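Backbone-to-sequence.
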C-alpha cells in the first residue's frame, strides 16, 4: 500500500501565512485507522528519505504502524515486521543508533504495566525484538522515552517517563552491545511525579545533555542540570514553579539569540512559552499569542515552514471535549513573537490529534507535517499528512554522522549564519530523539534561509569533542557532515573541508 504526496488532495492558498499546504487524502497513512499516539519521522533503511513510525495505544493492544518511503514520495506500509506485530497498548517511541552500527534502532513504551519494547534494526528497516535486558523488562505505566548520551561516551542512554503505579521514571545507561544498566541513584531516578514528556537538551550550552521532564496533576516540572553525568535538580526558576497539567515540552531557539527556549503544552489550560535568559533562568511570556490560546494541547513541533529563517509552531489538541478540535499553528515574526494562523489546512481540520512531527517527506526542501489521531466516538481514525507546497525561499538540510559521538548524532548542535534580508542571522538547532511528547522530528537539521543564496558559516558542535567550521556553502541542497572529516575551528582551512552531498531527487 502506498501513500502518494502528489495524489488526491485539498489545496488552500494562504495570503496572511505566505505558505500553502496540501492535505494528502490518498494512501495508507491517511486511510488506515488506529488509536494513534506517537509520530516518528526517521530514515530506517538509509536511502536518505525519511520513513514514518506511528504507535497505537488502544486498551487491550493494537499493532503499531510502519511506513517506508520508497524514495519517490510514496510510502509503503509494512505489515509483517516484528515492530508492527506487537499488539500492545503503546504510547511514545524514540529512535537512535543504539549500537553505532549505522542504522536507527527503536524503543517503544507501553502502559498498563506491560513491558516496554526494544528493537534492533538490521540496516534495511527490518527489526528484531530484544528481550531480557533492562529497558525491556521493567513493566511500567510509561508515557514516552528519549535517547540521549548523558555521559558523552559515544553511546546513547535512555530515559523513560511513567505517569501511574509507583511514578518512578527510569534512567538506563548504555553499556554497549544492547546491554543496559538501570541507574537507581540521583533525583532523576528517585523523584516521584506523574510524568509525561522528557527532553534531553543542552540548556546551558556547556557540552552535555541536561534533562527536562514535564508532569501533570498540577505538579511542577523537573529540570536536572547535567555535570559530566551527574545530575543536580534545579529549583527556584519560573520554569519549574508553574504547576499545570503539562503533557509536553518542546525546545527551540525561537528568537535566534543562541539558546533554547521552551513551549509547555498544557492539557485543559493555556500553553506556556518560556524565554531562556541563560544560567537556567527563564521568563514566562504571558502576553504572547501562544500563551493565550486555551486548548487541550498534547504535543507540538517547531519547524521553519516558510523557510524564512525563524521557527514556526504547530500544536495538537485532543480529548476533554464532546466534539473534535482544531490544532494550532503559529508563525514567527523573527523575534520570537507569534501570530496564530486560522486559515492554514493544518489548523482548520477537526480531529483529536496527539503526537505530531515535522520533516521533509519528499526532499523538496520544505518541511511537511504528520499528526497522529486517537479514537473518537468509539471509532479509530486515520492519521493526518500535510504536504508543504514550498515557495521561493532558500534552505539547506544537513545529515550528521558521528564517529566519536553516537552515530545518529543525537545531541549535536549546529549553528548557521547567513545574510537574510540584508541582516546577519545566526540560527541554532540540536539533534533530538524526542522533540516533544510522542514526537520525533526528522533527525536531519533543516534551516530556512529566506533570500540568502549563500551560507556564510556553519558550526557543528560535537558533544565532548570539537567544533567544526564550514564556510561559503551554497543553499538549496542536502549535505552530510561526518565527524572528523572536516577540520576543527581552531585550524580552519576551507580547502580541507570534506562534505558528502547527495542529490535532491525532486
Amino acid at each position: 500500500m502506498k501513500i502518494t504526496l502528489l495524489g488526491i488532495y485539498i489545496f488552500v492558498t494562504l495570503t496572511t501565512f505566505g505558505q500553502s499546504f496540501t492535505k494528502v487524502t490518498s494512501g495508507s497513512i491517511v486511510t488506515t485507522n488506529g488509536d494513534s499516539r506517537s509520530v516518528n519521522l526517521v530514515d530506517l533503511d538509509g536511502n536518505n528519505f525519511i520513513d514514518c513510525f506511528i504507535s497505537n495505544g488502544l486498551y487491550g493492544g493494537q499493532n503499531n504502524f510502519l511506513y517506508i518511503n520508497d524514495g519517490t514520495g510514496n510510502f509503503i506500509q509494512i505489515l509483517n515486521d516484528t515492530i508492527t506485530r506487537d499488539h500492545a497498548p503503546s504510547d511514545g517511541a524514540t529512535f537512535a543508533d543504539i549500537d553505532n552500527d549505522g542504522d536507527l534502532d527503536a524503543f517503544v513504551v507501553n502502559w498498563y504495566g506491560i513491558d516496554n519494547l526494544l528493537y534492533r534494526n538490521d540496516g534495511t528497516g527490518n527489526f528484531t525484538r530484544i528481550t531480557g535486558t533492562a529497558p525491556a523488562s521493567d513493566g511500567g505505566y510509561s508515557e514516552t522515552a528519549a535517547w540521549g548520551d548523558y555521559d558523552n561516551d559515544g553511546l546513547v542512554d535512555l530515559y523513560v517517563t511513567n505517569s501511574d503505579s509507583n511514578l518512578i521514571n527510569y534512567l538506563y545507561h548504555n553499556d554497549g552491545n544492547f546491554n543496559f544498566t538501570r541507574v537507581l541513584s540521583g533525583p532523576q531516578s528517585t523523584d516521584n511525579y506523574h510524568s509525561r514528556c522528557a527532553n534531553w537538551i543542552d540548556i546551558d550550552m556547556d557540552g552535555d545533555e541536561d534533562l527536562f521532564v514535564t508532569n501533570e496533576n498540577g505538579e511542577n516540572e523537573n529540570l536536572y542540570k547535567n555535570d559530566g553525568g551527574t545530575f543536580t535538580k534545579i529549583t527556584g526558576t519560573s520554569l519549574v514553579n508553574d504547576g499545570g497539567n503539562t503533557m509536553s515540552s518542546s525546545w527551540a531557539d525561537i528568537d535566534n539569540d543562541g539558546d533554547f527556549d521552551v513551549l509547555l503544552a498544557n492539557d485543559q489550560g493555556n500553553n506556556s512559552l518560556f524565554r531562556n535568559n541563560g544560567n537556567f533562568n527563564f521568563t514566562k511570556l504571558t502576553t504572547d499569542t501562544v500563551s493565550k490560546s486555551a486548548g487541550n494541547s498534547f504535543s507540538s513541533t517547531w519547524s521553519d515552514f516558510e523557510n524564512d529563517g525563524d521557527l514556526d509552531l504547530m500544536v495538537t489538541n485532543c480529548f476533554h471535549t464532546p466534539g473534535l478540535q482544531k490544532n494550532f499553528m503559529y508563525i514567527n515574526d523573527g523575534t520570537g513573537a507569534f501570530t496564530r494562523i486560522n486559515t492554514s489546512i493544518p489548523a482548520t481540520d477537526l480531529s483529536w490529534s496527539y503526537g505530531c512531527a515535522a520533516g521533509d517527506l519528499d526532499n523538496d526542501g520544505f518541511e511537511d507535517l504528520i499528526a497522529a489521531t486517537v479514537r473518537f466516538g468509539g471509532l479509530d481514525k486515520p492519521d493526518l499528512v500535510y504536504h508543504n507546497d514550498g515557495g521561493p525561499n532558500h534552505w539547506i538540510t544537513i545529515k550528521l554522522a558521528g564517529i566519536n559521538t553516537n552515530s545518529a548524532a543525537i545531541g549535536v548542535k549546529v549553528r548557521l549564519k547567513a545574510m537574510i534580508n540584508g541582516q546577519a542571522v545566526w540560527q541554532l538547532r540540536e539533534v533530538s530523539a524526542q522533540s516533544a511528547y510522542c514526537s520525533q522530528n526528522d533527525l536531519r537539521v533543516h534551516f530556512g534561509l529566506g533570500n540568502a543564496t549563500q551560507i556564510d558559516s556553519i558550526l557543528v558542535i560535537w558533544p565532548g569533542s570539537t567544533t567544526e567550521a564550514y564556510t561559503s556553502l551554497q543553499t538549496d541542497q542536502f549535505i552530510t557532515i561526518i565527524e572528523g572529516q572536516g577540520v576543527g575551528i581552531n585550524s580552519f582551512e576551507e580547502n580541507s573541508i570534506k562534505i558528502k552531498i547527495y542529490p535532491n531527487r525532486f
